[in-house]
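explain this:
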Amino acid sequence: MSAIITAGVDIGSGCVKTVLFEIDGEKTRWLGKEYARIRSRDPFALAAETYDAMLAKAGVSAGDVAYVASTGDAENLRFATGHFYSMTTHGRGAVYLNPEARSVLDIGALNGRAIRIDGGGKVLNYKMTSQCASGSGQFLENIARYLGIAHDEIGMLSQQADNPERVSSICAVLAETDVINMVSRGISAANILKGIHVSMAVRLAKLLKSIGATDGVVQMTGGLALDTGLVAALNEALVKEKVALVAESHPDSIYAGAVGGALWGAFRHQKLSRLEAVAA
């Protein structure tokens, strides 16, 4: 079977991610990737713009794409060929980014989830965090804005802490009140951020244990995967919880859902093509 081109479009709570792959049997080649913050824009219109921009940069026409897989909140994307549940795509994308991964922590703008997978990215078990948990990307972004810190400085500052102040509440609203009180008491931004990371990490470590993820590599995906402070705090929490897991990130972790969509899309396209060939 000749090489095909597939795309993945992942609409999350905060960002749109698109990827483009050329797949020839077991060989895959990454042709393009784009992401855009949603903010107050229409996510479906933004997805179309981002997808078109990716194709243009890659020099690929829409007609050359054999399968466009949607995932996340993109179920009604008009130009998608088919849709995949996001746990399925994050599992497959995690294994693509890190073949040693046997569990996934997907932490996005509004919530997080732990997913246990096999070597092919198949979902074996999962559990979500609370919708109101103070362990989301949006919560951290709000705190950084209040502290006057750029989003990309959070991880670095957190790792400079010398006396972290834990946030006790799991409710984002109450946790933000805790932070305001900390600032009034003169707690440094570094210690506030590390305290938030520690609080998040303890809950995430217990979430992983609850799905039976007790050893191996846990691949971070989603927007907070690139928060080096959170990754460091999580590895510290896993040691304290006596769990033989190592949390790892990847420069392209934010694209994991879109990657998994593109790869599962290729699998589905090839399967349908074989069935059509047999029927003919």
Summary: Residues 256-279 form the longest helix (24 residues). The two ends are 16 Å apart (CA to CA).
